[in-house]
Amino acid sequence: MSEQATAIVAGGCFWCTEAVFRDVIGVTNVESGYIGGSVDNPTYKQVCSGTTGHAEAIRVTFDTGVIGIDQILDIFFATHDPTQLNRQGNDVGTQYRSAVFPADDAQKAEVEAAIARAQADVPKPIVTTIEPMSTWYPAEDYHQEYWDGEGQRNPYCLAVIPPKLMKLRKSFANKVKG
């Protein structure tokens, strides 16, 4: 029997990770937001300053009858660089860290297994952190579904997102929406 589940992952710019998961079969919603910091209701400007402790992250809602948390995590690890500490490409700072925020002990075990699988595929150590679940703050409305709108005119997004989508389509062809 299928049900809706969520996973919260941080892999650099949330525009870029959101774009990947919007194309995954079984994903019913992707929301960009902030997690893991010390300021209530942070703004994008505050998070970008690197002073709040938050990560730019996405909350992925998925149908467990179609895709499992293991596959969600494998896609996450394959479509960003989990070996870069506090950065993804030109985005530098703890707000761009690679992290997962498991909802419970079972999800934490899945994250640990996914890290082990991913580590087998990369020569450098994976630095993705497993952090405690904390308050989720949705990003401002203009960040949601960014790639589908403004992102396709944003030079940064045009440089970063298409290679991620190509990797998704190549490595997970049977999990990509038509």
Characterise this structure:
The chain has five helices and eight strands; from the N terminus they run E-H-E-H-E-H-E-E-E-H-E-E-H. It is of the alpha+beta class and about 180 residues long. The chain has a single domain, classed as Peptide methionine sulphoxide reductase MsrA (Peptide Methionine Sulfoxide Reductase, Chain A, 2-Layer Sandwich). A six-stranded mixed β-sheet has the order 7-6-1-3-2-8, covered by helices on one side. A two-stranded antiparallel ribbon has the order 4-5. Strand 6, helix 4 and strand 7 form a beta-alpha-beta unit. The longest helix has 17 residues. The protein is globular.
Question: Could you write a compact summary of the structure shown?
Answer:
With 178 residues, this protein is an alpha+beta fold. Helix content is 31%, strand content 21%.
How do the strands and helices of this protein lay out in sequence?
Blueprint lengths: L3 E8 L2 H8 L5 E9 L8 H5 L6 E9 L5 H10 L8 E2 L2 E2 L5 E3 L4 H15 L9 E2 L6 E2 L16 H17 L7
Parallel strand pairs: 6-7
Antiparallel strand pairs: 1-3, 1-6, 2-3, 2-8, 4-5
Helix pairs in contact: 1-5, 3-4
The major sheet is characterized as: 6 strands, mixed
- General form: globular
Unreliable sequence segments = none
Relative helix content: 25-40%
CATH topology: Peptide Methionine Sulfoxide Reductase, Chain A
The CATH class is Alpha Beta
What is the level-2 CATH architecture name? 2-Layer Sandwich
Widest sheet: strand order? 7-6-1-3-2-8
